[in-house]
Amino acid sequence: MSPLNPNSPAAHDIATLWWWMLAVAATVFLGAVAMLMIGWLRRDTPGLPFLGENEKANTALVVLFGMAIPIVILVALFIVSDLVLLNETDAPQASSTAMTVTVTGHQWFWGVRYEGKNAETANEIHIPVRTPVNLVVHTADVIHSFWVPELNRKIDTIPGQANSIELYAERPGVYRGQCAEFCGLQHAHMAFRVYAEPMPKFEAWLANIERPAREPTTAEARQGQQYFMEDGCAACHTISGTKAKGTVGPNLTHLAGRQTLAADTIPNTPGDLFRWIQNPQEIKPGAKMPGLGLGPGKFHAIVAYLTGLK
Amino acid sequence: MTVSTPPATAVRLNRLERIWKESPGALGWLTTVDHKRIGILYFFTSLFFFAAGGVEALLIRTQLIGPNQSTLDPATFNEMMSTHGTTMIFFFVVPMSLGAFGNYLLPLMIGARDMAFPRLNALSYWIYLCAGIFLYVGVFSGNAPSAGWFDYVPLASKAYSPGPGIDFYALSLLFVSVSTTAGAINAIVTIFKLRAPGMSLNRMPLFCFAFLAVSFALIFALPALSTALILLELERLLGFHFFIPAAGGDPILWQNLFWIFGHPEVYIIILPAFGIATSIIPTFVRRKMVAWPLVALAEILVAFLGFGVWAHHMFAVGLASATTIYFAAASLIIVIPSGIQLFSWITTIVTGTPRFKTPLLWIIGFIVLFIMGGLSGVMFAAIPFDQQTTDTYFVVAHFHYVIFGAAVFPLLGGMYYWFPKVTGRMYYETWGKVSFWLTFIGTNITFFPMHILGLDGMPRRNYTYGPEMGWTGLNLIETLGAYLLALGLLSVFANLAISIFKGEKAGNDPFGGDTLEWSTTSPPPAYNYAVIPKVSSPYAMWDTEDREDDARNLELGRKTLEQGHETPASTAVDADWDEVLEMPSHSAWPPIVALGMTGVFAMIILEQWFAAAIATVVLALTVAGFHLKEPEEA
Predict the structure, then answer these.
(1) Distance (Å, rounded) from C-alpha B578 to C-alpha B580?
(2) Residue B66: is it exposed, middle or buried by C-beta count within 10 angstroms (0-12/13-18/19+)?
């Protein structure tokens, strides 16, 4: 999860900018420390040869190192980073991108919606590789910041404001992202993943996400579906094609297809899912999801239902 | 030092001693208006808050020592990191530099006998103490703020932070800004009006220029903060809507107001450190500062330009490019005055005769850390890079190099430097050097790896992280570094504490200092100078003929102002003799007014509006008492 491991043109540019800045900064730092070292080597002896107490020469040194050289470096930095590079990393025109994905920050997970499709998920974003995607960010509550360092800079989610950024991946892969603006108790557990896939694979994934949830196939899962609808879960979660239409928690229509739970906090295995729904506060203290105390039998049935939601 | 004092001189000194005497014992400390005693009160109080903020830092680092630790639960972690920042900035660095160093040293450096408004000075201290206690009543009653030191809405709004923690934060900062504003006004008037006749502005020590710049910056920056805090409390306590978009408000309003204050605050924190550096360097390299006028201008310019860069804290908010580009350019321009000062210090050291005693070591450490923090700071003016690294540990590394490295190191160096003046005794030189190296190494082990962690994607303010992130090793190193840093700081204060009792007698001028304070006794008498000193350069102590003049004047009873509680006032620019000011003597009103003010804030946080109204009336009465004409001298 490093900005220095770039996988998009924007992230490449920023990483290159960093290495150049580091080289210049290191030169300045070592030069200044070398001057201080001269002071130490000549400790307790008066003045430097040629300079000594020649005020004019000394002031000229200050003007040269403190003004002239910095001005040249700063002007160069300004042109490269704040005029050229800023333009290249700027958010794209929506019309120039293949599609628009809307991401909504919540305390503490990410809702994901594909514009123009009936496709919603949470905490993972699938995109076609080598295709510019227009990403629009909102918030349902406080300020968060959407950040996938290997793909682009970060962008805050501001109440009452829609910000956008380009998401583009050069290579197929999984890129981790995380909330970067402090947003309360579980700011640390508000991560997500971006899956960059070849177009056919992406389209197949999207087609599946657009379908309503699968009906349970075993008796236990049917039982679990009933508990889910009647014992409280449905008040906060949506499972499309069912009566569960809550919007407080993440959309669970295709939960079983996701790799992680609780915003990339634990892996999505039946065992972890059971632990999570039984006592979410132990895994993610302060999370908005309560432990409903339904007892192991009901929880096992709910897990059976959810793990069928491919 | 009393080498056969002539009888007439002894009589004069006795008379001054009697005129300037305050109450003995604890009552004396409660009612004092002596800038030196107030400075000492500020010193110990801010030291206490430094310790509190330090303990909070160590708890934070201990929680982050390894992945998935549970030293602190998430709620407590957020309280600790919020309280750490708030305490260190508002209740340690600023009161330590302005309150302790400024109060103690400004009148001495300009040859005055006190600050311009001695009672207001005492009031500033007592308000500061009460505001600090107010915040920590919140912390210890389980109501610490937990929305970070910049307290962004809507996280800090009632809907997402329902408890009174944010109210303790907002009200204590409003409370303390009364103290800081009064202190800044006092410093400005003192510097402009109380300079010893002859000390025209171009003969004023650079230290005073730095404090002048800071005081002006405070007066213009604090109203933005106060406005933001008042709007926040109106919203939280009375249901107004300033920051909620659904009700026509805007959360970015808070960010603008906060950083309009918050960025100048960075320079407010660091400029006193620059001032201390410009005092210590000439003394230990035996030469005057190179490019003196440029440095004086740069100090003023930094404080001024600091007001035009605030939105560089907001580059990820989604502002228009035209806006961000302007603020990036302004942020780059401010590098120039900092560069001038930096190379003035370096050139002065290299071309002088450096003696690497403890105070100079701290300043060298400061210069190295300031270059580090400055260079990483310049990078944030590259907008795309800022947008990558803001809110990561890279920023945490940067501002700790600036605030701890560049602002606190000179304060520690200054504590060693002026220790003999304040206590009359020497610190232990070898242990001083050891304490420097422990602290310097600890600082770098703690904060340098944070750059790498930030570039490895670790966001700031995460209460924990998973082992799979690969952040474990560096976090472990940082935490061990923090323990070493704490040890270094303890060794500083152990050295000073023991030296108070066991140190060798220091005499008036143990280092060959360059400014006036070294010409009086250590510790200085209540009236500072028996003779109003003659000044003809910014390095008054090195003008030996002037000092001999002072001694002659004392024998002859010239310029001694021994008829009353008096100090001379001079004209603002040229420092021509203007008039003789009758200074107020000790008073019990300052702590009483501060208590009255505490009552008002306490009733507000309890939302007892009727009682708050009564408390306000009581406060008004105490203020009236404060302004009663003081009784004639006994």
Answers:
(1) 7
(2) middle
Chain A residues touching B354 at Cβ < 8 A = 39-40, 42-44
Determine the Cα–Cα distance for residues B575 and B47; give it in Å rounded to an integer.
Answer: 35
Closest of A209, A144, A151 to residue B160, by C-alpha:
A144
What average pLDDT does the structure give for chain A? 93
According to DSSP, residue B246 is labeled: G
**B350 with A36: Cβ contact below 8 A:** yes
Question: Taking the C-alpha atoms of B29, B34, B36 and B42 in order, what is their torsion angle to the nearest 10 degrees?
Answer: 50
Task: State the Cα–Cα distance between residues A99 and B19, nearest whole angstrom.
Answer: 83
Structure confidence at residue B628 as a pLDDT band (50, 70, 90): confident
Residue B634 has pLDDT above 70, yes or no: no
In chain A, which residue's Cα lies nearest the Cα of B245? A160
Using DSSP bridges, classify how beta strands A99-106 and A133-139 pair: parallel, antiparallel or unpaired. parallel
Residue B523 corresponds to which tokens in the numbers above?
Answer: 């510790």
Sheet-wide strand order for A99-106: A119-122, A109-114, A99-106, A133-139, A163-167
Provide, as residue numbers in chain B, all residues whose Cβ is less than 8 Å from the Cβ of A185.
74-75, 78
Note whether B299 and B206 are within 8 A (CB).
yes
Mean pLDDT across chain B: 95
List, for residues A277-310, the tens digit of each pLDDT value: 999 999 999 999 999 999 999 999 999 999 999 9
pLDDT digits (tens, 9 = 90+) for B184-194: 999 999 999 99
B376 at interface of A, judged by CB pairs closer than 8 A: yes
pTM (predicted TM-score): 0.95
Q: Is A127 helix (H, G, I), strand (E, B) or coil?
A: strand
Which A residues 31-60 touch B at CB under 8 Å? 32-33, 35-36, 38-40, 42-48, 51-53, 55, 58-59
Is B540 exposed, middle or buried, given 0-12, 13-18 or 19+ CB atoms closer than 10 A?
buried
Question: Taking the CA of residue A284 as centre, how many other CA atoms within 13 Å lie in the half-sphere pointing to its CB?
Answer: 27
Contact status, residue B233 vs residue B167, Cβ threshold 8 Å: yes
- Confirm or reject contact between B15 and chain A (CB < 8 A): no
Q: Is the peptide bond before B525 cis (omega within 30 degrees of 0)?
A: no
**Which amino acid type is present at position A39?**
G
Q: Is A263 left (phi over 0), alpha (psi -120 to 50) or beta?
A: left
- The residues, any chain, with a CB within 8 Å of residue B594's CB and separated by 6 or more, are B123, B126, B127, B129, B130
Q: Is B442 exposed, middle or buried (0-12, 13-18, 19+ CB in 10 A)?
A: buried
Q: Which one of B321, B353, B375 has the shortest CB-CB distance to A29?
A: B375
**Exposure string over B74-104, b if 16+ CB within 10 A, otherwise e:** bbbbbbbbbbbbbbbbbbbbbbbbbbbbbbb
**pLDDT (average), residues B601-613:** 96
* Whole-number pLDDT of residue A49: 66
| Cross-chain CB nearest to B379 (options A21, A70, A87) | A21
Specify which residues B582 forms β-bridges with.
Answer: B566
Cα–Cα distances (Å) from B448 to A27, B368, B399, B444, B445, in that order, read 17, 13, 11, 5, 6
Q: Which helix (H) or strand (E) holds A191?
A: strand A191-197
Q: Which chain A residues touch B348 with a CB distance below 8 Å?
A: 58
- Tell me the chain B residues in contact with residue A20 when contact means C-beta distances shorter than 8 Å: none
H or E element in which residue B206 lies: helix B206-238
Contact (CB<8Å) B347/A58 = yes
Kindly state whether B250 is in contact with chain A, defined as any CB-CB distance less than 8 angstroms. Answer: yes
B93 min Cα distance to partner chain A (Å)? 24
Query: So what's the ipTM on this one?
Result: 0.96
Cis peptide before A108 (omega within 30 of 0): yes
Is A137 in a helix, a strand, or coil?
strand
Q: What is the pLDDT of residue A98?
A: 82
**Contact call for B382 and A180, based on CB within 8 A:** no
